[in-house]
């Protein structure tokens, strides 16, 4: 039962964190971000927010630094909106799956062209 609740909290947290980043953060270091997934532990104490960042490596680093700086604000705003007894600690991680998928697609396309 707690797994179902953790999944519901993760989906709500994904929606709220995405909205907070898009609408309320004014940090110029933060570029174009997509929140791809949120993984919440069963006890609702920790949340990993997976993001993709459009841009070069330096832009990604600056965006990540900006998000780390705003982590407390994002957590408090999400806590107000979701109304849990204790808001999960948020950590940000890059989601490499889209890049990996594009790389695999490119390799397959190149192999087909060689045939």
Notes on the protein architecture:
Monomer. Binds 30S ribosomal subunits, but not 50S ribosomal subunits or 70S ribosomes. It is found in: Cytoplasm. One of its GO terms (biological process) is maturation of SSU-rRNA. The protein is an alpha+beta fold and 115 residues long. The chain has a single domain, classed as GMP Synthetase, Chain A, domain 3, CATH 3.30.300. It is 57% helix and 19% strand. The protein contains four helices and three strands; from the N terminus they run H-E-E-H-H-E-H. It has a three-stranded mixed β-sheet with strand order 1-2-3. The longest helix has 22 residues.
Which percent range describes the beta-strand content?
15-25%
Distance between the termini: 52 Å
Provide the residue-averaged pLDDT. 88
Largest sheet: 3 strands, mixed
Structural class per helix/strand content?
A: alpha+beta
Order of helices and strands: HEEHHEH
Q: Key terms for this structure?
A:
115 residues; alpha+beta; GMP Synthetase, Chain A, domain 3; 3-stranded mixed β-sheet; 4 helices; 3 strands; 57% helix; RbfA; RbfA_dom_sf
Secondary-structure topology with pairs:
Blueprint: H1 2-23, E1 33-40, E2 46-53, H2 57-69, H3 71-82, E3 89-94, H4 97-114
Parallel strand pairs: 2-3
Antiparallel strand pairs: 1-2
Helix pairs in contact: 1-3
Pfam family, one: RBFA
Keywords: Cytoplasm, Ribosome biogenesis
Protein name: Ribosome-binding factor A
Structure, briefly:
This protein has 4 helices and 3 strands. It is an alpha+beta fold. A hairpin with a 5-residue loop joins strand 1 and strand 2.
């Amino acid at each position: 039962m707690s797994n179902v609740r953790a999944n519901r909290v993760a989906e709500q947290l994904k929606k709220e964190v995405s909205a907070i980043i898009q609408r309320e953060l004014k940090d110029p270091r933060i570029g174009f971000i997509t929140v791809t997934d949120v993984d919440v532990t069963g006890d609702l104490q920790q949340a990993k927010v997976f993001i993709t960042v459009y841009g070069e490596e330096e832009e990604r680093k600056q965006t990540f630094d900006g998000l780390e700086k705003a982590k407390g604000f994002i957590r408090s705003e999400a806590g107000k909106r979701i109304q849990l007894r204790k808001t999960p600690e948020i950590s940000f991680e890059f989601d490499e799956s889209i890049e990996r998928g594009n790389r695999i697609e490119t390799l397959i396309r190149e192999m087909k062209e060689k045939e």
